[in-house]
Amino acid sequence: MGLTAELAQYIADSKSLVLDDAVLSTVRNGFIDTVGVMVAGKDEPVTGVMRLFVANQQGRLEEARILLGPQRCAARDAALINATAGHALDYDDVGLMGHPSVVLVPALLAEGERITASGLDLMRSYLVGYEVWAELVSRDPDKLHDKGWHPTAVFGVVAVAAAVAALRGLNAVHTRHALGLAATMAGGLIANFGSMAKPFHAGQAAAHGIDAVNLASLGMTASPDMLEHRCGFLAAFSPKGHADVSPLSGDFRHQNWIKSRGLGVKKYPMCFATHRVIDAVLDLAATHDLHSDRIRSVRAIIGKTQASILPNPQPTNALEAKFSVQFAVAAALVARRVGLGELVDAFVQRDAVRQLFDRVEVGTVDTVCPEETTLALSDRVLIETLDGHIFDSGEVYHARGSFGAPLAASDLEAKFLDCVRCEPSVDGPLWYRRLSELEACDDVSRLFVSGNPAAYFPLGAQ
Hints:
Layout: H1 3-12, H2 21-40, H3 45-55, E1 64-65, E2 72-73, H4 75-88, H5 100-115, H6 119-138, H7 151-168, H8 172-184, H9 197-217, H10 233-237, H11 257-261, H12 275-288, E3 295-303, H13 304-308, H14 318-321, H15 325-335, H16 345-348, H17 351-357, E4 360-365, E5 380-385, E6 390-392, H18 409-420, H19 428-436
Parallel strand pairs: 3-4
Antiparallel strand pairs: 1-2, 3-5, 5-6
Helix pairs in contact: 1-8, 2-4, 2-5, 2-18, 3-4, 4-5, 4-9, 5-6, 5-7, 5-9, 6-7, 7-8, 7-9, 8-9, 12-15, 15-17
């Protein structure tokens, strides 16, 4: 069998997968973090556009919750809205050169609600989607970003199709067609970073992954070798044509990419390529009591690919600022923090912030981080003050919250509660406790319903 057929067989057999404690912990964190940032992004303009778009479509299916509230729509449309909301603030987790959870979690929650799946079913299906994404990413030594492709929109749609096919128990033949259909719907361009289209990439990937499974279930076919064909998925998206299209080696059920690559939970609501720089500036500012009005220059040294996806040296609004090294440095110096309160237009447009943009110089190195290949091996920041002192961060290898420096459970909970605190209908502590024992939930359609969940959490999560 070729790669497409082999992965399809793995997905079809996935009901037998056993998730150990380490895998459960990683997947659980992905669900917790995504639900939090999804609620936080519910009032963003792009989320409103998606809701209007869905409302204007014909058909009134009520299969899944919109933004986990009382309104419902078709599962694929709920995934479209919810994944877009989850990515709207660029606060969702990272890994595999993209954002795995923000496409997988909304799709699985919507489909899981539609078919009344269990929490463990969702977690197992998440693992399947993650592993398929990781396998495909690992097959190309070059970075899709360098060619202008957004990996979340490319690999994400295939990963969602794999996860949803696993959740719904498709056989290998239908799954193979679903993978092929998802592959032909993949795509998203980095030129859209800093606009509403960027979070739409995540929504589109989540919805199209479900579409692919729906179409395959109805009898739609695709090329049986879509992933490995010389004109197929891997070859077409490969920046330099070096993708490995050979069959799987060994038993894929024991690959466990998730243990070696994991997830990074963001500490700041900005592109992850800025996070080590932010950490460095915050640490230098705190250690040496640096004030923004006393800064002569800042030199941030990052990777070439990082620089290519941070194209906004003079951002004028919060969307653009998410992809700006200059803003990352300025926010860290002016506010001594980079949170949701700083990622608003009014803060970006403050004179004290804008005056620093021209003082920030970006240098690049051509090294690669083994954990996240879109990043350099390390970042470094040098700050010179008006009195001539130069403060050097040294090499920064791991951002706080990354796979190499994970957030503590208390920090993850604090982030979740901060994300949902602005929504009065959400009982943050209750939702957090339920998500923390997701594997014990018998019916995810009741996961976010108020009241006593004892009937749906037989292990007693309250």
